[in-house]
Amino acid sequence: MRRLVALVATALSALLILAAHPAHTALADRDPLRAAFDKAAAAHDVPRDLLAAIAYAETHLDGHDGSPSASGGYGVMHLVSNPTTHTLEKAAELTGLPVEKLRADTEANILGGAAVLRSIADELGLDEAARKDEGRWYRAVARYGNASTPELSRLYADAVYELLGLGFKAKGLRVAPREVTADRGEYAAAQDLNARAVAASPDYPNASWVPANSGNYTASSRPSSYAIDRVIVHVTQGSYAGTISWFQNPSANVSAHYVIRSSDGATTQMVRDKDVAWHAGNWSYNTRSIGIEHEGWVSDASWFTDAMYRASAALTRHICDKYGIPKDRTHIIGHNQVPGATHTDPGPHWNWTTYMSYVTGGGGGTWSATVDNSGAFTASANWGTSSYSAQRHGADYRFASPVAASDPAWFRANLPSTGSYRVEVWYPSDPGYNSSAPYIVATSSGNQTVFVDQRSGGGGWRSIGTFTLNAGDRDVVGVSRWTSGVGYVVADAVRITRL
């Protein structure tokens, strides 16, 4: 009898497994990327959404068919193999998977990235309790980026944590916005390269200055040594922080004068205009040109945002005016147009028509409104007024302590039509300001909340996303006090731009 019961139990278990398996397979077939992140996160006890945010910051979740980035990174997790960094080989050691599979197979690559991230967390002493708090992983994320300096490590990790606060959707994967307080540890003392108060560019007032390694360009005295008569447009084949770090790596043997970020058009100068950057693959064109790198990948149009186009066009216009370069396609060219070029950037997704219209000033008709904390602005008496920070927009800004009640400050605008709008915010940053300030956007489908770390990145416009907004005169963007983040919540200014 016992044997019969055991046989029946075994048969039932088999039936249950068989019954469950098709559903599991269907889920994996429908959303293979989501299933791969779930599996890797569970296998190595890392936060699933944090792992996904790293991948999105690096590659927008695109493995690029196993092709490496400019710095030798592979797959959606950007596992690097170059003369100074060997996370690809580390992932192979940790997972037992062959390097070839980690390069080309997305599920294996994500598993490898999770293993590397967990190994860094173990080195930092994150115990089981700490691993459950996404904010405690900040230092591990900073190290995962393999940046050349603490400042660049912070830039890299801040980009990942910004994605957690804003949320994102791509390729069947959704990461919802959430409150998270990044525990920066020693990186809190590193210079905030997102802030507009960092070292100014020597040649372009809207850029920050982070010099490339001196072995990656040729010192010169242009335009007296060589005439400057070209602007060359490039795509980084990698992330903004990763590209800046790579140009600082003495093994790179490559550089560009400027690098521009996809999300908000932030610009960093790395080689003086007077010096010859090594970007064109043609010495004559190197000597006569300014090279501009744009964050992203040639094969993925999602990187080429309106904010990037506008920021780059403003820079190109400045360069052309400064050096007397005609604003036409003979003198503003892609890397692929350089004689003897083996590169294809900026590629088929780069919109030259839009870009050149911005360069020449013909694309300036887009509606935009900036609302400061006066005029079309309302807030309760609980919101104080301060002019303490020099990073403020206008004469002052509003602040309030976080409480378990919304009590929002609202910015009002009269939108000309229903459509897609980019929303940017301006706030002064300070270690005493809020680590997860809730911004409410009144979209056509209801209010959406995203979270911004106001301890960093202040003194400039920061994009918090693109939203569908209804036409009319109404409250559009609010700043709520209801947050578990620490520090004063700040309401300073917003900018709303129709796309």
TrEMBL record:
Gene3D superfamilies for the chain: 1.10.530.10, Peptidoglycan recognition protein-like (3.40.80.10)
Superkingdom, taxonomy of origin: Bacteria
InterPro entries cross-referenced by the UniProt entry: Amidase/PGRP_sf, Amidase_domain, CBD-like_Golvesin-Xly, Lysozyme-like_dom_sf, NAMLAA_amidase_2
Pfam families: Amidase_2, Golvesin_C
EC number: 3.5.1.28
Top class in the EC scheme: hydrolase
Catalytic reactions of this protein: Hydrolyzes the link between N-acetylmuramoyl residues and L-amino acid residues in certain cell-wall glycopeptides
Signal peptide: 1-25
Keyword Hydrolase tagged: yes
Keywords: Cell wall biogenesis/degradation, Hydrolase, Signal
Entries under CDD domains matching the protein: CBM6-CBM35-CBM36_like_2, PGRP
Domain N-acetylmuramoyl-L-alanine amidase: 216-347
UniProt entry tagged with the keyword Magnesium: no
Protein name listed in UniProt: N-acetylmuramoyl-L-alanine amidase
Species of provenance: Nonomuraea recticatena
